[in-house]
Amino acid sequence: MSAFRARDAASDPGHGSRRRAWAELLAGRVKRQKSGPEGEQKVRESAVRLLRSHLNLGDLVLEVEGPPHKQLCLSRLIDDDGPVAHTDLSSSLIGSALRDQAAQLGVPAAVLSSQVVASGLVRVCEADAGPPPKVLLTPDQRKKLSSLFEIAQKLLAQSMFSRLSFCQELRKVQNSLLLEAVWRLHVQNIVSLQELLESHADSQAMVAWLSRDLRLLCEQTEAPCQHADVARAMLADFVQMLVLRGFQKNVDGRGTVEPEWMSQVAVAVLDRMLASALEALAAGIQEGSIAHKAVSCWFGVFSGHVYRSIISTESPKRFFCHTLTQILTHKPVLKVSDAVQMQREWSFARTPPLLSGLYRRLFVILSPEELVGHLQEVLETQEVNWQHVLSCVSTLVICLPDAQQLVNGWVSRLLAHAFESGDLDSMVLAFLVARQAALEGPAAFPSYAAWFQATFGSTRGFHSCSKKALVFLFKFLSDLVPFEGPRYLQVHILHPPLVPSKYRALLTDYVALARTRLADLKVSIENMGLYEDLSSTGDVTEPHCQTSQDVEKAITVFEHTGKIPAAVLEASIFRRSYYLSHFLPALLTPREVSTRRREREAGSAESGVPVGVSPKSCLPSQLPRVPDSRAALIESLRRADKIPPSLYSTYRQACSTVGEKKPEDVASRRELEPSCTEEPLGLLTTALQELRASVTDPTQHDALLAQMAVISERLHSALGLGEDDSDIEGAPVQLSVRAPKLQPWEQRVVDLLLTSFCQNLMAASSVAPPDRQGPWAAHFVRTLCRRRLLPALLSRLCQLLRHQGPSLSASHVVGLAALAVHLGESRSALPEVHVGPPTPARGLPVPELFDILLPCRTQESSALCLKFCTAAISYSLCKFSSQSRDILYSCLSPGLIKKFQFLVFRWFSETRDPPSWEDPASSPWRPLCLPSVDWQRAALCLWKQRTLRELLKQEGLHLTYRDWLQLELEIQPEVDSLSDTERQAFHQWAIHQHFLPAPSATGGCDGDLAVACTTLVDVLMDFCQSSRSYDHSENSDLVLGGCTGNRDIFSRLQEMAADLEQGPAPLGHAAPRGHFLFGVFCRRLQALARGWDVASRLQRQQELLMCKRILLGLPPSVLVGSPRLEQLAAPDCSDFFHLVNSELRNFSHDGALTHDITAHFFRGLLNACSRSRDPSLAADLTLTACQTQCPLLLTSALLWWPHLEPELHRRWRRCSQSPLPAELQRLQEAQHFAGSVLSPLAAPPAPGPAWLCAAALHFVIRRAGKESVRRELGQLDGQGEELLVFLFFFSLMGLLSSHLTPQAIGSLKALNVCAEVLGCLQRKRISWLLLFQLTETDASLGRTLLRLAPDHHIRLLPVAFYSLLSYFDEDALLQEDAFLHVAVNMYLKLVGLFVAGETGAVWTLAHSGDLQAQGDPVSLITNARLFLLQLIPRCPKRSFSDMAELLGVSADCDPEVRAALLSRRQAVLDPDLYQEPRLF
């Protein structure tokens, strides 16, 4: 209506007359017009039609909330009830208009609104477009966008806005958008940054646009403006988004994996930003420039505050690691030789501050160990920028507090690996790192001279183990000579490696070579200064400059000491050339007479001119009248005959000097670059192209051999091989699977050959199937198998398949699979391959190598393995279809065939049923020749082949239950292709439907669930052991999730074990005795070597740890056989008792098992008793049997009683309302008795048995931390002698445990307790020597105590015996008939332990303070020997009644002790011979 008024106002010049004329014109019409609802409706409709015909939605959305002079008068069309109502009604009006126009256009309203808002956004962004590109909005643009975004939010709330359509519209006008506008869309939740990025199909264009705008944002962030905070917030949000999208596996709670291309875009943007910053630094930007500020701004995003909103630190950590890798590998143009020559220029002080600051930020989130490990990994696997690597090392040395220790450890590991494996790369890296660290000064790292001397100057050096190591060292040093600076050569000559005399020639040859190099550099080792600092990193000073410094230093030393300096005397004898040619002429330089002698001396020293040289500018000089320090030194040297008379005479005559000869400049060294001509490689490329034309032409097959001969000759020339390099036999190939390495020129040649083979195979397959392609492929592969080329070929295959597998195309996979088949065809002529970690270092045939290169751990690796196996098997079946099966066996590895079966079963559920049909016309090779390979179709086509089914029936090729378990255990569930539910269903099918009912002849279990469980446990333990051995895992929780992929398989074991336990008993047989697990444990433990050496004990302990964790993961009833309800017999625990007595006891501590296995046993006991007719009787019978058969379980219960008792009460109440069984009450009473002894009240009588009460008392004393037990021992008066004897035994075990286990109580405290118990025994005249004479035949004492202590502790009883030597009551002990026998026996065993090296562990693991108090093994043996030699003459006759056996043993251990025993024995047996003669 306002439009009508505006039109009327324009038609009449006079306002008043115009109004009357209009009224007059309408007067008649108004009279004829009827008023009423119908008329009002028509007016509204007319108004709506008018608005529609003139409505512009683009202007509407921009003008609704805009300035008053540019907005439509919408407020006049609606009631203005306030700002909120105004906004809501305005939005409603816009929504109504959008719906109307969308209806007219026939498009969804959400799509139209998205287009209108996108158009408005573009108009706002283009409103202030100027020549300098911008990314920030002006204030006016922000105001307009605020209104526009408010409308968009309202439309979004009303479901009238399509984010997808909006993103598509923005994609069309991407270059017109300002980055701040995009950011505000994200901040106001209209469209997220991720949605905007995902809508762009052209990832390269997106990367270029975002990188460009981020660079502009960095420049404008540092520019002086009022909106810097907005720019910083924008940059932080963009970086957070890119880091999350590029370096986080799971983006949201649903666990959806980030699209790969999105991750690639994010990483590409971050990499491009970093690369541009690094290139700007390399170009030498000036501080304060725009580029410098932009780089500083971008490096600032690596500050920790940018990532505070990211909950997990894993994404920033992965981003920082990736960034560090990109820095280290940025444009690797320098070679190692360049690094050796130029590394002095890359110290911390010379590193650009921006780059060193970036390093420091990256170091914050990584631990020092992770940092060094990451550096090592990058250096081993990638080509690096040596300038960045070494500047990073310098920053690490300067900035990390423990850098010296860290770098020392890193360098030591590198040297150890280099000398162990002959790895030249590790050797080079060790020297570069050590030298770079030494550049930062002695405060950060020892000088290079000190490091080199400490590393190679003693017999403990890495080079001193063998001649091979020495040859390797000097070969390396010799190879460095052409690139070495003179300072390093001087260090090597003056501080040479320590070399045995018989290998002195190696050192002599190197010194001669180094001296020659120094001579070429015009640096003489003989002319080195007396006080020259070899640790200096600067250039070698000229002889005359160093000589003047030496003269000043010698004069200063002479002034302080009054004696000729030792360095001068040594030089006059050992370095006479330098002494006569340089030092003396500089010292004897004539000087002018002056009163300012000190200044004159300094001046003459600085401008010293050799005698016999007279520059015209120098005046004749005279000696000073009063002798000064220089003159006094000269006179002292003359009197000592250290100055030749002629030279001194010349000096005295003050001959005229001649012009100073300026030393010649050091000749610049020519760098000899290896001549690399492209001609041989070009000829080889041409020959390979000609071969491709031949293989696709069937008429040229006869010429293939001639063509292969040409290729062989060209390859021979390209590799520079000799005549002896044509054969393939020789030493085994050494291959590192973790970090395969090959030279760049080798990689170029191998890549050319592999590319040609893949292309030729695909070209030939497009013409004919493999069996009609002729022998070209076999001849081609045979050409590759040269002695020099085969290691490079296998290393490259390792890189491609194991490390770069997902990036291989279908043609690459097919070609490499065919190559593997032909390598297998030539296996008899190929050497074995020795593969390093993560597999055993053993020789493998080449076909079996591919089993290792193709793991099945993740979805990506499994997919590659399935593709490769499908291609290899299909190719071999087609290639050798008409030949014998033996060729198939030799060409294909059984492991690949089994992996194919495993993955087909796993991925395709339709293969789990026997194939019902076969397409005889379909060839398994045909799907692989299509331009776009459908791998699922190819695998299923191969699976349905009758030829394959017949092949799988052969022995060794069928997938067995054990094979399936081994492969399934390698699967990592978190990156598995199957979901948890799908994986569980697959496990159930594989175990219960496929392998369990299958006959054992085909790898099944014959329907026996126990056999299935036994095999599973065996494979599980093998897998965990191998994972710990080869993957170097330090996680001890191997069974319950420590080893990758074993969690679900262990769950299947738990399920099957429960089925076995709950299943029916076999008909006609008694309940099975024991459990299948103990049979597996017993068999595996018996296969291990028994011994007391550390390696054997650790191996057995590791195996037992596995056994224990499996037991703990299964129901406790496994430990205790369940009696049937109709039986009164106790549960059968004999198998578990045997395991405890034979194995677990030897790894118990202080007479007790660990809490977990103890509690597990008692849980199982109570559960089993609850199923019996009389639970109390069953428990009492079992625990009574424990007293004689396995007493260690009872002492373990006493140790853990405070934790165990509540659980026992709770479980017992579940199965019975009666009190605890009598035997459990006995344990409770023993615990109460022990507690009462420590209380101030009188102790009650000790319940039986005595050893149980003694154990309880010992544990209570240990928990209380008592250092003295005299009062407690007084409480035991009248308790019986056995109690004290048993308490002494447990105290002895505690003493030995305190030495052997670091977490045990202190040795001194344990020794005090033992001494007080011993004193109590001696005061009461109670014999205790039987504790050191325990045997299994002693049923009352020995059998029980020997089952309570580890065998190692029993063997170490001599150490405990003589540790108490100072507490012995010798007079009382001499009354004991057995004391001498026990003392001698303990001494002989102590000597035997020392000779065997077993006493070292006692003092190695003991605490340092206690160690000082108790001495060492030698002092202990010395004191014991002295004690015996003093004791033997005092022993009575009855002490020698049983000495024959000990006398025989002592002859080899200690002849002097044996002689003393024989002498005393003879004296007491025939006293007349030793009486003094009566002469008078």
Model description:
The protein has 1480 residues and is mainly α. It has 70 helices and three strands. The protein has a three-stranded mixed β-sheet. Strand 2 and strand 3 form a beta hairpin.
For the biggest β-sheet, the strand order reads 1-2-3
Q: Supply Rg.
A: 46 Å
Helix content: 55-70%
Shape: globular
Low-confidence stretches: 1-19, 64-90, 251-257, 592-626, 655-677, 722-729, 1028-1044, 1066-1072, 1405-1413, 1473-1480
Number of helices: 70
Mean pLDDT value: 78
Number of strands: 3
Query: How much of the sequence is in beta strands?
Result: under 5%
Structural class, by secondary structure, is mainly alpha
In whole angstroms, the N-to-C terminal distance is 164 Å
Largest sheet: 3 strands, mixed
Brief description of this entry?
By secondary structure, the chain is mainly α.
Q: Would you spell out the secondary-structure blueprint of this structure?
A:
Elements: H1 2-11, H2 15-32, H3 37-54, H4 57-63, H5 83-105, H6 109-126, H7 139-157, H8 163-172, H9 179-187, H10 193-198, H11 203-222, H12 228-247, H13 260-282, H14 290-299, H15 314-328, H16 336-342, H17 353-365, H18 368-381, H19 386-399, H20 403-421, H21 424-438, H22 448-456, H23 467-480, H24 486-494, H25 504-520, H26 543-561, H27 566-574, H28 576-587, H29 597-606, H30 629-639, H31 645-653, H32 679-695, H33 704-719, E1 733-735, H34 744-765, H35 776-784, H36 789-803, H37 810-825, E2 833-835, E3 843-844, H38 846-853, H39 859-879, H40 885-891, H41 894-907, H42 935-943, H43 946-952, H44 961-969, H45 980-995, H46 1009-1030, H47 1038-1042, H48 1047-1062, H49 1076-1087, H50 1094-1113, H51 1134-1142, H52 1155-1170, H53 1175-1189, H54 1191-1199, H55 1201-1215, H56 1222-1238, H57 1250-1264, H58 1270-1275, H59 1281-1300, H60 1307-1323, H61 1342-1346, H62 1351-1355, H63 1357-1363, H64 1370-1373, H65 1379-1396, H66 1400-1404, H67 1408-1414, H68 1417-1431, H69 1444-1453, H70 1455-1469
Parallel strand pairs: 1-2
Antiparallel strand pairs: 2-3
Helix pairs in contact: 4-6, 6-7, 6-8, 11-12, 11-13, 11-14, 12-13, 12-15, 13-14, 17-19, 19-21, 20-21, 23-25, 24-25, 26-28, 27-28, 32-33, 32-34, 33-35, 34-36, 34-37, 35-37, 37-39, 39-41, 39-42, 44-46, 46-48, 46-50, 49-50, 52-53, 52-55, 53-54, 54-57, 56-57, 57-59, 59-60, 63-65
